[in-house]
Design a protein that fits this description.
By secondary structure, the protein is mostly beta strands. It has strands at about 1-5, 10-15, 15-20, 30-35, 45-50, 60.
Length: about 80
């Protein structure tokens, strides 16, 4: 999974915390790489939480294959 965010961010996949960014910075898509996660067959629930004090925010999530490329599900 590739993640970009500009403030404090957390990502939960199927109820489990899989990514956390604690240091605020400018938004950059795909900045963080999350390895060793797997989607289960059927429905998966992803929650992307961004916490900030200003009016504007940015965030992106790409589900990728094991090689870091786009998975079949996201093409």
């Amino acid at each position: 999974m590739k993640v970009g965010s500009d403030y404090h961010a957390r990502i939960y996949l199927n109820g489990r915390l899989v990514h956390e960014r604690r240091n605020p910075t400018s938004f950059e898509p795909d900045r963080d790489k999350v390895k060793d996660i797997q989607l289960k067959a059927g429905l998966n629930v992803l929650v992307f939480k961004i916490v900030q004090s200003g009016p504007a925010w940015g965030g992106s999530v790409w589900i990728t294959g094991a090689d870091g490329g786009l998975s079949r599900a996201s093409k």
